[in-house]
């Protein structure tokens, strides 16, 4: 299997190992596989009897053909270990009627980013060997909270890789700060900067683009790499849990083999829902994909009108991982529906004017598979409360956005198929807002909110968030935003 850029009409030439190492294509496009491998009913039936790591290795081996099945199986077994994914890698819990919650947050940072970031570093480590890379990869991450911690957990103690994370000193929550400051591992570093998230992001971009830095690094035996969510190595592992969810629906006798089901995804960068679309293209019987947004409803507008326009207000919401105006992975959908030439033109327009409009036939092809819904803050809070009070299911703020969208879709369409809703974070990750929704009052403090939520709901704090205040603090450094490059060099000298 070879890969090509979404913006190029040349034939595919890059191997999976190369695209995982490289991240973004040279022309600025995203890497896509040259063809879609198939998944037959007989294979699905076989996967029904397998564990999550085996399901993952079998699906990944269809895309990563330059990795052996044994390599993938070893990596998947280590990534999705039972002691890091307590309660299973992607268990499904019924919410009510045909709504099923696919819980993707049982991993080491209690958010769904772990599903990809536990396996991707292992794939990168092998990619370095497969491409004859002798240098150490230095992963630089700017984070507004969640991605930094998930990346640290994923890359810690992985061969041939070091990771450094920058976060805005006053721009992350107390829980997030503690999660990062107490990070374990011999190849990790964390540094706060005096500035906001954009400063951190711009700083990292400047370091990536600095030829002199690259030379200094090269002399020390390092090169830069990124853990960005547009990397194919993060996307491919997300296909797996849709297949796994279908197997679990069959095992629970909620679907017969061949019956179709629907999927609803709380969406930011469009990575997670695009993985579901790929699963559908492979042959997984997904009938419809519901794209759920919060008040930043740029995708809802796009799916309804065909116009993507980021010239609009930006809102900070209680589901911050979906506060996004540029959904990068949408480019991959455009490529599959409209082809590389049109995709390159849309992206050109987006860069020049902040907007583009797809042709009516492109929109109608997209609408055959996707619907968009959005949920405002009040509806999100009411959904958390009602879902807990009426059905005993405690959802985080992102999951609640999706539950509300799924309910709206079911009501409008009358579709009674099973509806798999991606649950993307533990409710304890956003304990403040979840507590306010179910208890009707503010928690004493952000740290206190975890225990108060536990008492109020009779649920349990997940292990990654328990006892956070008692853990050893390893990283306390704060630098000026102009000093980020210096901080990197200092780290590598140590
Ligand atoms: C990243 C994230 C999302 C959005 O996923 P995309 O792949 O960017 O669409 C949703 N919920 C949570 C909790 C996240 O961390």
Strand and helix layout:
Layout: E1 3-5, H1 16-22, E2 31-33, H2 41-48, H3 52-63, H4 69-79, E3 92-96, E4 99-103, H5 113-117, H6 120-130, E5 136-142, H7 146-155, E6 161-168, H8 174-181, E7 188-194, H9 197-208, H10 211-219, E8 222-225, H11 232-251, E9 261-266, H12 271-282, E10 286-293, H13 298-305, E11 307-309, H14 330-338, H15 340-353, E12 355-357, H16 360-369, E13 370-374, H17 377-391, H18 397-413, E14 419-423, H19 431-439, H20 446-457, E15 478-480, H21 484-493
Parallel strand pairs: 4-14, 5-6, 5-8, 6-7, 7-15, 9-10, 9-14, 10-13
Antiparallel strand pairs: 1-2, 3-4, 11-12
The chain binds pyridoxal-5'-phosphate.
Pyridoxal-5'-phosphate binds at residues 111-113, 146, 229, 266-272, 321-322, 398, 424-425.
Describe the protein.
The relative contact order is 0.14. Strand 5 (136-142), helix 7 (146-155) and strand 6 form a beta-alpha-beta unit. This protein has a six-stranded mixed β-sheet, with helices on both faces. Strands 8-5-6-7-15 form a five-stranded parallel β-sheet, with helices on both faces. It has a two-stranded antiparallel ribbon with strand order 1-2. The protein has helices at residues 16-22, 41-48, 52-63, 69-79, 113-117, 120-130, 146-155, 174-181, 197-208, 211-219, 232-251, 271-282, 298-305, 330-338, 340-353, 360-369, 377-391, 397-413, 431-439, 446-457, 484-493; strands spanning 3-5, 31-33, 92-96, 99-103, 136-142, 161-168, 188-194, 222-225, 261-266, 286-293, 307-309, 355-357, 370-374, 419-423, 478-480. It has 494 residues and is α/β, with parallel strands linked by helices. Helix 3 crosses helix 11, helix 14 packs across helix 15 and helix 17 crosses helix 18. The longest helix has 20 residues, at 232-251. The protein contains 21 helices and 15 strands. It is globular, with a radius of gyration of 22 Å. The protein has a domain at 92-109 and 233-462: 3-Layer(aba) Sandwich (Rossmann fold). Pyridoxal-5'-phosphate binds next to helix 12.
């Amino acid at each position: 299997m070879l890969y090509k850029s979404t913006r190029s009409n040349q034939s595919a030439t890059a191997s999976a190992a190369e695209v995982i190492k490289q991240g973004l294509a040279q022309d600025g496009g995203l890497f896509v596989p040259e063809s879609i491998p198939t998944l037959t009913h007989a294979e699905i039936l076989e996967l029904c009897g397998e564990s999550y790591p085996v399901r993952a290795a079998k699906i990944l081996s269809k895309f990563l053909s330059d990795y052996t099945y044994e390599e993938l199986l070893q990596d998947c077994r280590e990534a999705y270990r039972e002691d890091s994914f307590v309660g299973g890698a992607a268990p499904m819990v019924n919410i009510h009627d045909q709504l099923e919650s696919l819980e993707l947050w049982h991993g080491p940072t209690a958010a769904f980013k772990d599903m990809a970031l536990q396996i991707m570093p292992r794939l990168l480590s092998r990619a370095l060997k497969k491409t004859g890379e002798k240098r150490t990869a230095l992963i630089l991450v700017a984070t507004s909270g969640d991605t930094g911690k998930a990346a640290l957990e994923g890359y810690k103690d992985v061969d041939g890789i070091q990771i450094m994370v920058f976060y805005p000193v006053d721009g992350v929550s107390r829980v997030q700060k503690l999660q990062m400051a107490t990070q374990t591992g011999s190849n990790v570093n964390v540094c706060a900067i005096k500035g906001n998230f954009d400063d951190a992001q711009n700083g990292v971009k400047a370091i990536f683009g600095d030829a002199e830095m690259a030379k200094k690094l090269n002399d020390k035996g390092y090169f830069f790499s990124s853990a960005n969510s547009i990397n194919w190595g993060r996307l491919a592992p997300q296909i797996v849990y849709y297949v796994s969810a279908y197997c679990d629906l069959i095992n629970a006798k909620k679907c017969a083999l061949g019956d179709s089901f629907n999927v609803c995804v709380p969406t930011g960068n469009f990575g997670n829902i695009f993985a579901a679309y790929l699963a559908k293209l492979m042959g997984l019987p997904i009938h419809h994909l519901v794209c759920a947004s919060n008040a930043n409803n740029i995708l809802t507008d796009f799916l309804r009108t065909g116009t993507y326009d980021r010239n609009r207000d930006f809102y900070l919401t209680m589901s911050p991982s979906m506060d996004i105006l540029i959904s990068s992975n949408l480019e991959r959908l455009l490529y599959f529906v409209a082809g590389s030439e049109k995709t390159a033109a849309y992206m050109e327009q987006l860069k020049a004017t902040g907007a583009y409009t797809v042709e009516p036939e492109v929109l109608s092809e997209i609408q055959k598979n996707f619907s968009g819904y959005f949920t405002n803050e009040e509806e999100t809070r009411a959904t958390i409360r009602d879902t807990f009070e009426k059905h005993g299911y405690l959802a985080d703020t992102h999951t609640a956005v999706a539950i509300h969208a799924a309910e709206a879709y079911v009501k409008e369409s009358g579709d009674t198929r099973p509806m798999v809703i991606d649950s993307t974070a533990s409710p304890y990750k956003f304990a403040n807002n979840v507590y306010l929704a179910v208890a009707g009052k503010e928690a004493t403090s952000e740290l206190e909110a975890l225990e108060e939520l536990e008492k109020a709901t009779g649920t349990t704090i997940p292990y990654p968030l328990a006892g956070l205040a008692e853990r050893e603090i390893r990283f306390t450094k704060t630098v000026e935003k102009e000093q980020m490059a210096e901080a990197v060099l200092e780290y590598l000298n140590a």
